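Hi V.,

You were right to ask for the full record rather than a summary. Here it is.
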Amino acid sequence: MNTAARVLALLAERGESLAVAESLTGGLVAAELTSVPGASRTFRGSVTAYDTTLKRDVLRVDGTLLEQQGAVDPEVAGQMAVGVRDVLGAVWGIATTGVAGPEPQDGQPVGTVYVAVAGPGGPAKVAALRLNGDRAEIRRESVRSVLELLCGELGTNARTRDTEQNGGT
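Predicted structure:
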């Protein structure tokens, strides 16, 4: 079972939903998820916010942060994940932002990527990636990485929930 199928199966087991915010991946995360039969049970939708103003206006990323740090920033990734989760009414939100190339962006070198996961009502967990390869390889690895991050968070969250239900032992 590929990572997208695993993520969707975990979400279905829990009765939870997912929304995606994408920048450098340009819809590839959503495409990977929707390639799995039955994805509509848990996948609510996505926002491809390639333009920085969409990150601010649609995903509710802080405008001052975007002006000062640019779109390629860990806090921006986290705010994108929280924003898409809230805007699309999902339990979980994931986000990708970074530089796929061929040129640097916002003072960041090609291969600088941030992926984020925002769970139920909480702050986002962000992973910083330094990827090698051409534009297509960086984008593919970004998709894989954000889905793996979510898969890990779903597993961690499930273990925490089980511990709480069993009296905290």
